[in-house]
């Protein structure tokens, strides 16, 4: 059981497919401009997030390139980027990983993404069936890990062949950067149990997450391994529960039923992901029953693939819900919110104190001064008044 008194490891999300104020609409959208992504990265680095997830797919900016572009503007932030077996050779991904870990001075995390959309995979030249992709991934990472940890690999496998493969430079992190993985199928869990370090689940109700953690932990134990767990969630945190639920309603206020129906049909026919099916089953495309567990809201999944749930409420409410997940074994959270820049500030300023996560020194710049307190007056001359401490 996880120690809930220990602050949870909290990462944020870099929206490399775009960002916006409303889901399913065309108003107030933001393109994934590098300067905007840089604003988010530098903000979360300063606010106390430990890292950022960069998604992968044809609609996203390439994660390795984007992370390399953002790393020089940050100091402590770790970058969770995707390795997709089959889109390049394991030797090439080993060189990418070593280079990014070196230029970021040891701040690389790697997210194994085996698939999800057969159509997208076909565009990348990958035509294996669902479970066969994991057999391919096992051989892929056998070569990749040998290269990263020893600098050399050989394999004459069914899917992967490597003859005297070499890696010229080691990673900063030894023996290799941490490997994350998210997948809900039996084949995915079996692959993870023998290979990766941290298992990521999407934000399902606590009972479902508990069942999944037990299954994953047992699979890892059968292979003599211990693993850790994380959860991918959106957040809508406001000063009161009422304000938070109003913000959730506003987020989908531009979303019409036709857009929902088209999105759900696309997810159903265009993906063979077990996790995606589990997300869709939480709401079944209905916008009238979106609170699928106390304060767990499935409105985002009406039109967004992948992680489709948000914790909604005041800081105390959301912190209590997160502690329930911690008690099940969750140690890491990968959060997001729309728009990602503003919501990164809200989560840090409102929720982090409740979670015991320390925020950087700039938050105390309006604090005590010679035993007094400073009151923010909105700018101008002499509008910050020093008052006696109570």
From TrEMBL:
Which parts of the chain span the membrane according to its record? none
Q: What is its EC number?
A: 1.14.14.5
Class of this enzyme:
oxidoreductase
The entry's keywords: Flavoprotein, FMN, Monooxygenase, Oxidoreductase
Q: Give the Gene Ontology MF terms in alphabetical order.
A: alkanesulfonate monooxygenase activity
Under SUPFAM superfamilies, the record lists: Bacterial luciferase-like (SSF51679)
Q: Which reaction does it catalyse?
A: an alkanesulfonate + FMNH2 + O2 = an aldehyde + FMN + sulfite + H2O + 2 H(+)
Q: Give GO BP annotations, semicolon-separated.
A: alkanesulfonate catabolic process
Q: Domain Luciferase-like: where? A: 9-331
Q: Does the keyword Oxidoreductase apply?
A: yes
Alphabetical list of Pfam families matching this protein: Bac_luciferase
Task of the protein:
Catalyzes the desulfonation of aliphatic sulfonates.
In the record, the note on similarity to other proteins reads: Belongs to the SsuD family.
Which PANTHER family does the UniProt entry name for this protein?
ALKANESULFONATE MONOOXYGENASE (PTHR42847), ALKANESULFONATE MONOOXYGENASE-RELATED (PTHR42847:SF4)
Q: NCBIfam families recorded for this chain? A: alk_sulf_monoox, PRK00719.1
Q: What is this protein called?
A: Alkanesulfonate monooxygenase
Q: Which organism is it from?
A: Rhizobium deserti
């Amino acid at each position: 059981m996880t120690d809930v008194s220990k602050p949870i490891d909290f990462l944020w999300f870099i929206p490399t497919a775009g960002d916006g104020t409303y889901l399913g609409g065309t108003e107030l959208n933001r393109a994934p401009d590098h300067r905007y992504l840089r604003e988010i990265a530098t903000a979360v680095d300063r606010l106390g997030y430990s890292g950022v997830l960069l998604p992968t797919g044809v609609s996203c900016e390439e994660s390795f390139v984007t992370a390399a572009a953002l790393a020089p503007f940050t100091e402590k932030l770790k970058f969770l980027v995707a390795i997709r077996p089959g889109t390049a050779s394991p030797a090439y991904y080993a060189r990418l990983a070593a280079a990014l870990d070196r230029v970021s001075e040891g701040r690389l995390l790697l997210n194994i993404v085996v698939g999800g959309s057969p159509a997208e995979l076909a565009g990348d030249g990958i035509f294996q069936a669902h479970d066969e992709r994991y057999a391919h991934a096992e051989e892929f990472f056998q070569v990749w890990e040998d290269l990263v940890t020893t600098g050399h690999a050989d394999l004459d496998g069914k899917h992967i062949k490597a003859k005297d493969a070499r890696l010229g430079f080691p990673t900063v992190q030894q023996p290799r950067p941490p490997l994350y993985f998210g997948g809900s199928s039996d084949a995915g869990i079996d692959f993870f149990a023998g290979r990766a370090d941290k298992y990521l689940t999407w934000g399902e109700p606590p009972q479902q997450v508990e069942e999944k953690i037990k299954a994953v932990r047992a699979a890892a134990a059968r292979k003599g391994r211990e693993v850790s767990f994380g959860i991918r969630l959106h957040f809508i945190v406001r000063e009161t529960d009422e304000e938070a639920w109003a913000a959730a309603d506003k987020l989908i206020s531009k979303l019409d039923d036709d857009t929902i129906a088209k999105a759900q049909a696309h997810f159903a026919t265009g993906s063979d992901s077990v996790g995606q099916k589990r997300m869709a089953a939480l709401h079944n495309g209905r916008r009238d029953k979106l609170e699928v567990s106390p304060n767990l809201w499935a409105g985002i999944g009406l039109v967004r693939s992948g992680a489709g749930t948000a914790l909604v409420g005041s800081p105390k409410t959301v912190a209590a819900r997160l502690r329930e997940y911690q008690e099940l074994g969750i140690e890491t959270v990968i959060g997001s919110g729309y728009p990602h820049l503003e919501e990164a500030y809200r989560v840090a300023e409102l929720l982090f104190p409740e979670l015991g996560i320390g925020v950087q020194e700039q938050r105390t710049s309006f604090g005590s001064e010679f035993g007094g307190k400073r009151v923010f007056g909105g700018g101008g001359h002499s509008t910050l008044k020093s008052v006696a401490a109570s």
